Amino acid sequence: MPTLELRHLSKTYPNGAAAVRDVSLQLPAGVLAVMVGPSGSGKSTLLRLIAGLERATSGEVLFDGTALSGVPPHRRDLAMLFQQPALYPYLSVRGNLAHGVKPLRLGRGEADHRVAEAARLLGLEPLLDRRPQELSGGEAQRVALGRALARRPRLLLLDEPLASLDAALRGELRGELRRLHAALGGTMLCVTHDQSEALALADLLVVINEGTLQQVGPPQELYERPANRFVAGFLGQPGMNLWSGRASDHRFEADGGAITAQIAGVPKGDMVLGVRAERLRLNDEQVPPLGRGRVTHVEPQGPDAVVHLDAGGARCAARSAAPCCFQVGDDVTLGAVADDLHWFAADAAGLRLA
Ligand SMILES: Nc1ncnc2c1ncn2[C@@H]1O[C@H](COP(=O)(O)OP(=O)(O)OP(=O)(O)O)[C@@H](O)[C@H]1O
Fold it and tell me: Which of 246, 255, 266, 311 could bridge to 293 as Cys pair (CB 3.0-4.6 Å)?
């Protein structure tokens, strides 16, 4: 039985914003799921609906098969962690952790044990007597996480918990979240708009756009076989190269004519060709050619570089090992093996064809 199930969940705010549209989703027990999507795509609204902080316009949230409508937030066996940790300024770290378990009315011994365990797991022991204003941003976020974990909720909802931290701390806390999840079990649903964070964290990735669920699955599967053009373009740094064009007689020609490819097994007509930047080969005679492009700029990224190109008026990008041998203005051959070509419908839904 899945822990959390959303059935045809929709939310339209009184101002007419349709933030969540007919979302159905099942999260198996014990999974670390990460929801990702652009700003304004409805991620926070979905979390708030699950937590009971917003009322759904239609549809249901079920927990272990039981509908939660009418169950107030504090009666749901879940904890929610926000982007800005809301700690009680007049309580010490110990007091803040203890406050998390207060509503559970545990015996003194058990409450103390939960606080000590959360402090140990999150490395907060040296900070237990400090006040929130004496903590760094990362420490404060760890206390908020510890307070949520001390309750041992069966479902932990995290809304951009790492967004206010610098890159190094984000990486550290990301590792901690994974470790805590492995140590404590329970189901976690974490929201982020940072897709590289999502790829690194998730057992299960949930992609949402304009309030609509786009695809759910293991991150690598979504990266390698995106279900539609949105997922293809959203995941990846940079997102997948996408060329609109037309196919006929086993041959695709992109608008502008600079890119062509052989195709089999897809219908004729308007469609979109996709190739991941790391699979787009430059001046590589070993792979079938797709066409030609001109280098517009080169972005060094340490171990490799992103080479941006113009191919017949369409922009695209390729990854090239460092040191990068391409320069602005270079005219290069683009190529890719057949297995690295993705085909999508040209209509608004943009579903994967092959
Ligand atoms: N309380 C509200 N009243 C009216 N409209 C709202 C409210 N909260 C959110 N919205 C609208 O609903 C849509 C989804 O917002 P939501 O905050 O859920 O998106 P998000 O994906 O979490 O965005 P972000 O990544 O920027 O936090 C947006 O169009 C937003 O303007």
Answer: 311
Closest C-alpha to ligand 1, atom 27: 39
- Fold of domain 238-345: OB fold (Dihydrolipoamide Acetyltransferase, E2P) (2.40.50)
Residue 306 backbone class (left: φ over 0; alpha: ψ -120 to 50; beta: rest): beta
Which residues are near ligand 1 (CB < 6 Å)? 13, 15, 17, 19, 37, 39-45, 193
The CATH H-level (homologous superfamily) assignment of domain 2-230 is: P-loop containing nucleotide triphosphate hydrolases (3.40.50.300)
> Which ligand 1 atom minimizes the distance to the CA of 191?
22
Q: What is the ipTM of this complex?
A: 0.97
Per-residue pLDDT of the chain (354 residues; tens, 9 = 90+): 568 999 999 999 999 999 999 999 999 999 999 999 999 999 999 999 999 999 999 999 999 888 988 888 888 888 888 877 889 999 999 999 999 888 788 888 888 999 998 898 888 999 999 999 999 888 898 899 889 888 888 899 998 877 777 777 778 778 888 888 887 788 999 998 888 888 888 999 999 999 999 999 999 999 999 999 999 999 998 999 999 999 998 899 999 888 999 887 777 899 999 999 999 999 999 999 999 999 999 999 888 999 999 998 899 999 998 777 899 999 999 999 999 999 999 999 999 998
The residue behind tokens 């570089």 is: 305
**Which two structure tokens, joined as six digits, stand for 73?**
């937030």
Number of the ligand 1 atom closest to the C-alpha atom of 13: 4
Residue nearest to atom 4 of ligand 1 (CA): 13
Q: Is 71 exposed, middle or buried (0-12, 13-18, 19+ CB in 10 A)?
A: middle
Rg (CA), the chain: 24
Residue in 13, 162, 212 to alter for ligand 1 test, most ligand atoms within 8 A of Cβ: 13
Q: Delimit the domains of the chain by residue range.
A: 2-230, 238-345
